[in-house]
Amino acid sequence: MQPPLENESSVLVFTLSGLNETMENRFVFFSLTALFYPLMVFCNVTVIFTIILHKKLHEPMYVFICNLCVNGLFGTSGFYPKFMYDLLAHDHVISYAGCLIQIFVIYSSALCEFSTLTVMAYDRYVAICRPLEYHSIMTNQRVFNCIIFCWLAPFVCMSVLIILISRLTLCGATIEKLFCEIWAVAKLSCFSTTVNNVFGYIVILTYFGHAVFIFCSYIHLIRKCIKSIEGRHKFMQTCVPHLLSLINVTVALLFDVLYSRYGSKKVPQGVRNFMALEFLLVPPILNPLIYGLNLTTVRQQVMRMFFKKQVGIS
To answer: Are 43 and 78 in contact (CB under 8 A)?
Structure first.
């Protein structure tokens, strides 16, 4: 048993206890992860390079899709390499600095996903509801500003949260998850975490407010699109994948946030692990697949890139 820790300087490493009850299957999990992670990287990189290399795809919607895939690679890089190492290691520990870095990468990526889906919703609103003004509104400068917003706002929010966490005096070093998480570290504090909680809830409400904004904009889009066959087709092709991505990441993060704070330890650890990982498992592979396969223009360019000699595509 670890002795109580008097202050934050005593915490050199954290112990991640999320794998304790599933270590007998660690080689199975390692094999699955060793297959899944490279596949996820391949799918995202394929979509990214397809969009970058073809001028036909240098449009706002595809730029935002590219940003979504880059963010997927960024976020998962903060989890999967360490997770695969832990599956083969006997001691599941992470340094204090490494824990804060992991928190920053994973959760800034999650917030960036919301920001990107929000600007994508705005882009679809302009394209469908104000088509004649689209190119005058979605200029290169505005697209650039949107991309900066997608990254800068999450980075600022997470930087403040990391500073608030680093100020805490900790009385423990065991995190009951597979990876470092903000609330899991905050619960180890010896004293009040009111400031952390208040700012954390402000960030949560702000970004779930993004989701509410998107759903409201889609209600307007649906009303607009059902009036014509062309509108319905455009909605099904470009908006439905976006809506699926939004629902998935919203539900996953909502569960992660609520369970971290109010969840019962009676739930089997395997179930807790899966639900905690859902936003690191599904969106990074779902996004490149639904956009790469569903959008005809992207699909054609991907096929041309890989099957140029075998398949003739006009």
So the answer is: no
